[in-house]
Design brief:
The complex is a heterodimer of chains A (478) and B (654). Chain A is mostly helical. Chain A is built from 19 helices and 4 strands. Chain A has a two-stranded antiparallel sheet with strand order 1-2. Chain B has 654 residues and is mainly alpha-helical. The radius of gyration of chain B is 30 Å and the shape is globular. The chains are: A mainly alpha (478), B mainly alpha (654).
Chain lengths: 478, 654
């Protein structure tokens, strides 16, 4: 048994337990220092992952490859950024006290779960990683346990999450039943030998996909998203929106293309259906929203739909485009949530889109950055979001998914409306009561860096594109 | 040396960019200084180029850079300096320099002087690009460049609706011509596989029998292409049919009329035909057409000029008429004569326009000659200068001895027309003589109505009549010098016995079997042909004197006697009305139909409006689905997974 490839996760798990102890003994006043330690630990794990050898561990339960490392980099960036942004950002309007020490620690455990699941090479390790992440997220959603909205959100997420886990387990069971294996490599061999996938396998795949679709919040398994995004504390929402999305998308891609790659005829159209539904729901659902967190929830459904268009292509190019999309989306999301976290008036968080009115006059730089991010999300060239969509759509067209590509483009046109409406509010409407300024430095830093990445992607795309290409290539060689 | 020539071309651009982009920081005075000095320097360099290339027979071409390379299509940026282009360079830069300096005075009350100077300089640059072009695409660049500047300058006073309308009219009418020009360029590329002048000219003789098949028509290739190119020339040079924009273009400031709509841009068509003489020479039918169109324009515009009252419109129709002369000369293969008249005309017509500007300036912006009169004592210098311009225009001189500029150039053209001994030549000669009579008449009608007789303006205006400042008069003197001596000085090299030495390869004239060119023939016409223009000119001046000085009731009587004819001339042969009926109204009707029925009725209704209202309905419905109840959500998930499984199973089964 060779544990070396798993060292980063082991390090993080130990760090999590130690920090939990520290928190228990020191109390909530340790929350703030803990966030820094958690962020440091995350980056340390990433650096460790860079140096540790790639390969299998624990008898093929775990695999460290380029796809896993790409996803882990996104997880660490997303998690660390949101952990830091969350630090000390309690919302007194909810009548709650300061940040609880569990928050950073739970975020750390969730990150460990995500890292495990993107490295899973077996249905069982997949489930363990997924559940570790999910359990931490259930608690995080309701961590403001004296807030009605937050507890409602946490409960909804838990109930529905349990249902989806059940579906996923059922699907995993069916797959095991019809292929005789839980290890991805052996499943792949079995599926290849099978030729046409048997009906039982197909049912298993659909159930498995239902579970995964819930995690990425793809339609029709998306309905928890707006409620949880709105109900949870905003720093928690930011965490939800960043790392878990990237992790679940990478996992989705791995499960579909690695063990079930030869059953693409069975799942390709389902992914296409889910992707198409998601972009449509994302586009239309957001139109009617006034709450910016709900709006971001629908926006995330649409973006996940777009990323899944890449998966529906069921090609190396498609997976590559999915990875690029999730990376770019992560940065757009971080920037957007940094802005949303900074939306405060008289020390109280505000979250309707009308609060943005006239922001270009009261907060010119913030407004400019958010405008760039929104243009990017809408897919306006030359910003990164345009290229993300371009890669995905060209992969879809290469695979002959013309209808899906057209649906994607049309949905993108519709979604432009609500992104541009925010810009219009900021730039063309009279300012209302000004929001607090200046922006907290850490939020400004995240907003600035993420926006810069979106802006310079056109000039220096290779860090994202080249690594995603390599990851997709390796996945298809296995 | 090459560098100097290139600098001469780009100086106006530098001036334009400085005044246009940094006019605010340069200030009015700075912008004027930069553009004027750039132009004067360019004029000096152009004269040097003329001496070197034209008189020294030293043509050259300077490659600047590559431009378009696509397949076997190549168009570069190269400046071609041969006799033809340096003659044009001199005309353009000298007149332009005069107009620049004059504008400093004329526009002194205007609020956007840097913009005006920038446009003028930009125009000059575009014109220089046109005349030094080394291939058709580059020429088209300059061609469109001057078109744009003309549009900008006609509409310079953009707060006047009439100026905007005139600017649009000029642009749109020119589009008709440019369409022909562009088609001609496409056709040239189709036939010759290149747009470069040298290659085209070298190969033209081989393609005389080539045919073009288009829509079942079997056409002579060279004739067709030359016809299309000539359509372009007709638009730019305001020839009969496409002339309607030129009189309206007088809405622009007077210096613009002098520079663009008299001396330079409108002659671009003539220049183009001369530049392409190696091809046009192989298209005898088109040349005949050019002759007829030119002669008809010369006659038509002169008749209209007889009846107009707006001082600038009289000169505008005169320009139109003189362009007709140039074209029928070119149509008779007498390209040197056309270029000769082009050059002399540039001087005296710019002089007349700027002089008219001085009059308008003196009369507090009054342009109607019926409200002028009796001001010769107040503005003596302008009066004398207008006389010089008119003498040059009418071509006054003593045959065989000496005369004003127009005397040499116009008479040369008429001699060519007679000497051609062809039917088109004879028509051109007849119409040309008639037009010469009318030219003299309307020129002195203008002078007598404006300067002589009793004042018809009110006292306030009359009290204010004043001579222009020196900065406006000096350019006039320069132009007057040109109007006096350019004819006698340039006759020898341009159309003298050794004209071929001067023009070199830049103009090609096919000689007849005796080895004579049309110019040679023109030198051997009877004396009465040389004398006749002078006689009719004298007659025209006498008639004008009779009508407007001696018997001032004669004009009214004549109008009463020939009421129908007068109305026909006065209304410019009803061209505008006919075009309005034939083109403008149907186009507007079609536009309105497409707009209201097509765009609003169909596209908006089912497109943007329909889709956006549908999007709103869908969004409302979607948010209703989001009830907030967990069991609804769970139900949706289960339905979703069941539906997907069912869908898959049905597909597997099918």
């Amino acid at each position: 048994m060779q544990a070396a490839p798993m060292l980063p996760e082991i390090l993080l798990a130990i760090a999590g337990m130690v920090l939990l102890m520290v928190g228990v003994f020191v109390g909530d006043k340790s929350a703030k220092p803990l966030t820094y330690v958690v962020a440091a630990a995350l980056f340390a794990a990433l650096a460790l992952g860079w140096t540790t050898p790639h390969g299998d561990a624990f008898g093929g339960l775990f695999v460290a490859d380029k796809l896993a490392y790409f996803a882990k980099a996104l997880i660490v960036i997303g998690a660390a950024a949101t952990v830091l942004m969350a630090a000390g950002r309690a919302t007194p309007s909810d009548g709650s006290g300061p940040m609880r020490f569990e928050q950073p620690v739970l975020m750390l455990f969730a990150s460990v779960g995500m890292m495990l699941m993107v490295s899973a090479n077996d249905l069982m390790s997949l489930y363990v990683g997924l559940e570790l992440q999910s359990l931490a997220l259930y608690v995080l959603a309701a961590i403001r346990r004296d807030s009605l909205r937050a507890t409602e959100a946490g409960l909804k997420y838990f109930v529905l999450g349990a249902l989806s886990s059940g579906m996923l387990l059922y699907g995993a069971g069916m797959i095991y039943g019809f292929t005789g294996a839980t290890n991805f490599d052996r499943i792949a061999a079995s599926v290849t030998a099978m030729g046409t996938p048997s009906l039982g396998l197909v049912v298993g795949i659909v159930f498995l996909m239902a579970g995964l679709a819930f995690k990425v919040s793809a339609a029709p398994f998306h309905m928890w998203t707006p409620d949880v995004y709105e109900g949870a504390d905003t720093p928690i929402t930011a965490f939800f929106a960043a790392a878990p999305k990237a992790a679940a998308l990478a996992l989705f891609a791995r499960v579909m293309t690695d063990p079930l790659g030869d059953a693409a005829s069975a799942w390709g159209q389902i992914v296409a259906m889910i992707a198409g539904l998601s972009v449509i729901v994302g586009a239309f659902g957001a139109l009617a929203q006034r709450n910016i967190k709900r709006l971001m929830a629908y926006s995330s459904i649409g973006h996940v739909g777009f990323a899944l268009i890449g998966l529906a292509a069921a090609s190396e190019n498609g997976v590559r485009s999915l990875l690029i999309y999730s990376a770019i989306y992560l940065f757009m999301n971080l920037a957007a949530f940094a802005f949303i976290l900074a939306m405060r008036r008289d020390e109280h968080a505000v979250e309707t889109i009308d609060d943005l009115a006239g922001a270009s006059q009261t907060h010119p730089y913030m407004a400019l950055a958010l405008a760039a991010v929104l243009f990017s999300m809408a897919g306006i060239p030359p910003l990164a979001g345009f290229f993300a969509k371009l890669y995905v759509l060209s992969a879809a067209v290469d695979s002959g998914l013309y209808v899906l590509a057209v649906v994607g483009v049309l949905a993108s046109v519709i979604s432009c409306f609500y992104y541009l409406r925010l810009i219009k509010l900021m730039y063309f409407d009279a300012p209302r009561d000004a929001m607090d300024s200046p922006m907290p430095r850490d939020l400004g830093l995240v907003l600035g860096v993420a926006t810069a990445i979106i802006l310079v992607f056109i000039l220096i795309p290779s860090p994202i594109v080249a690594t995603a290409t390599a990851a997709a290539q390796e996945l298809f060689q296995r | 040396m090459n560098a100097l020539y290139v600098i001469a071309i780009f100086l106006p651009l530098i001036g334009a960019l400085s005044a246009g982009l940094f006019g605010r920081s340069l200030g009015d005075r700075g912008s004027q200084l930069v553009t004027c000095s750039a132009l004067i320097l360019a004029a000096v360099l152009s004269v040097i180029a003329f001496i070197d290339v034209g008189l020294g027979h030293n043509p050259r071409s300077v490659e600047l850079m590559r431009w378009i390379e696509s397949g076997n299509f190549e168009a570069g940026w190269a400046l071609r300096f041969d006799t033809l282009s340096v003659v044009m360079m001199c005309v353009v830069t000298i007149v332009s320099a005069c107009v620049h300096v004059y504008s400093v005075g004329y526009m002194s009350h205007d609020h956007s002087k840097p913009r005006f100077m920038a446009y003028l300089s930009l125009f000059t640059f575009a014109m220089l690009m046109l005349v030094t072009a080394d291939n058709l695409v580059q020429m088209f660049f300059g061609w469109e460049g001057v078109g744009v500047c003309s549009y900008l300058l006609i509409g310079f006073w953009y707060d006047r609706p009439s100026a905007n309308a005139a600017a649009m009219k000029a642009f749109i009418v020119n589009r008709v011509g440019d369409f022909g020009f562009a088609l001609g360029i496409f056709g040239i590329f189709l036939l010759f596989d290149t747009v470069s002048f040298d290659t085209i000219f070298g190969a033209a003789a081989q393609f005389t029998d080539a045919r073009i098949h288009f829509l079942g028509l079997d056409l002579d290739a060279i004739e067709t292409l030359c016809f299309l190119l000539f359509i372009g020339a007709m638009g730019k040079s305001a020839q009969l049919g496409l002339h309607t924009w030129l009189p309206d273009a007088m809405e622009g400031p007077t210096p613009v009329s002098a520079l663009i709509h008299a001396a330079t841009m409108v002659t671009a068509g003539v220049f183009m035909v001369c530049r392409l003489s190696p091809i046009f020479e192989y298209a005898p039918n088109v040349l005949a057409f050019v002759t007829i169109v030119g002669a008809a324009t010369a006659f038509f515009a002169a008749t209209v000029g007889l009846t107009q009252f707006d001082i600038k419109r009289v000169i505008a129709y005169s320009t139109c008429s003189q362009l007709g002369y140039m074209f029928f000369a070119a149509g008779l293969s007498a390209y040197p004569a056309a270029m000769f008249h082009l050059t002399t005309h540039a001087f005296f017509k710019a002089l007349l326009f700027l002089g008219a500007g001085a009059v308008i300036h003196a009369m507090s912006d009054e342009q109607d000659m019926r409200k002028m009169g009796g001001i010769r004592g107040h503005i003596k210098q302008t009066y004398i200068l207008m006389w010089i311009g008119s003498l040059a225009l009418a071509g006054v001189g003593i045959p065989g001895v000496i005369g004003f500029a127009g005397f040499y150039s116009k008479d040369m053209i008429l001699e060519v027309a007679y000497g051609a001994h062809t039917i088109p030549g004879f028509i051109a000669f007849t119409l040309g003589i008639a037009a010469a009579l009318m030219t003299a008449f309307y020129s002195w009608r203008l002078i007598f109505m404006t300067f002589h007789g009793a004042p018809r303006a009110d006292e306030k205006v009359m009290a204010h009549v004043h001579e222009s400042p020196p900065i406006m008069l000096w350019p006039l003197y320069v132009l007057a010098l040109g109007a006096v001596i350019s004819g006698v000085a340039l006759y020898g090299p341009f159309v003298g016995h050794h004209f071929q030495e001067f023009w070199g390869d830049s103009i090609v004239i096919l000689a007849n079997v005796q080895g004579e060119t049309i110019i040679d023939k023109a030198h051997h016409v009877p004396f009465w042909v040389k004398a006749l223009p002078v006689v009719v000119t004298a007659l025209g001046i006498y008639l004008a004197w009779r009508f407007y000085i001696k018997q001032t009731d004669l004009p009214a009587k004549t109008v009463a006697a020939f009421e129908g004819l007068h109305a026909f001339f006065f209304n410019k042969w009803y061209f505008d009305e006919a075009y309005d009926f034939l083109f403008v109204r149907p186009a507007k009707w079609l536009g309105r139909q497409l707009w209201q029925r097509g765009d609003i009725g169909v596209i908006d209704r089912f497109g943007p409006d329909g889709i956006s209202s549908m999007a709103k309905r869908v969004a409302d419905r979607a948010s209703k689905l989001q009830s907030g109840y967990v069991y609804h959500y769970a139900f949706a998930m289960l339905i979703g997974v069941v539906a997907l499984v069912a869908w898959r199973i049905i597909q597997e089964g099918a």
